[in-house]
Specification:
It comes from Homo sapiens. With about 25 residues, the chain is an all-alpha fold. The protein is built from 1 helix and no strands. About 0% of the residues are buried.
Amino acid sequence: MLVMAPRTVLLLLSAALALTETWA
């Protein structure tokens, strides 16, 4: 689980970045 934590955080960050870029 601890190994997957950073991956999920990166995925969420990339998703948020894509959303902000799309909204902007």
